[in-house]
Amino acid sequence: MTGATVGSALGGGVSAQADTPAPQATQAGKPSVQGYLYLTPDEAGFVEAVAMHMVPADHLSPHGVDLGIPVYIDRALAGGWGRGDRMYLQGPWAPGEPSQGYQSPLTPAEIYRTGIAQTNAHCEKNHGKTFDLLSEVDRETVLKALEAGKIQFASGLPAKAFFSILYQTVVEGLFADPIYGGNRDKQGWKMIGFPGVIETHALNIVNFKNKNYRAPTLGIEDLS
């Protein structure tokens, strides 16, 4: 797969860590609305479908829903980051240069909500069903079209801007500290051999150069 799959590029932008994270168990393949703070049932179905598609289960890890990625995203959207607490939201809103990123009066939570609704509208028009009900092949086609900016949203929101924030938060949900709701049981870290938040890690890079390194994977809660 291309950029529509998280494993192909472990990048990130601004951290979307939520204010009040709380891990919430989910049932694979079904919207787990109970416990969501921001996502509606339809939005939960979309986000969980994206998480399972971008992070499929394999011999290295469970799929994205079991890893808690939708929970991380929901907590982030419901918190200060989703509200745009640290963003400039007063305009004017002229199109920016590519190096400046997307210039928008919308908060991240509003971009997410608008993007999901517009993507589902595109899916219903072209495939007769919402994104969460599409086949794996059709989901990949839609995500690639979003990434390339080939889908035109009636709201005026650029599809690439929505995909960028969607992809960013999926990656963050896979690798952020489990205290924020994703990376359940530290399985994202274990998948890549990251030992977590230990103070001696920098020294261990020197001491264990070209050697196998074995240590417990620790998160914030383990040290508090």
- Outline the biggest β-sheet: none
Q: Kindly state the percentage of residues in helix.
A: 40-55%
SS element count, helices: 9
How would you spell out the order of helices and strands? HHHHHHHHH
How would you describe the shape?
globular
Q: What number of structural domains do the residues give? A: 2
Secondary-structure-based class equals mainly alpha
Task: Name the descriptors.
single chain; 224 residues; mainly alpha; 9 helices; globular
Overview of this protein structure:
- There is one protein chain.
- The chain has about 220 residues and is mostly helical.
- The chain has 2 domains: about 5-190, no CATH class; about 195-224, no CATH class.
- It is built from 9 helices and no strands.
- The chain has helices at about 40-55, 70-80, 80-85, 110-125, 135-150, 160-175, 185-190, 200-205, 220-224.
- The radius of gyration is 18 Å and the shape is globular.
Set out the fold topology:
Layout: H1 41-54, H2 69-78, H3 80-83, H4 108-127, H5 136-148, H6 159-175, H7 187-192, H8 201-207, H9 220-223
Helix pairs in contact: 2-6, 4-6, 5-6
Describe the structure concisely for a colleague.
By secondary structure, the protein is an all-alpha fold. The chain contains 9 helices and no strands. Helix content is 42%, strand content 0%.
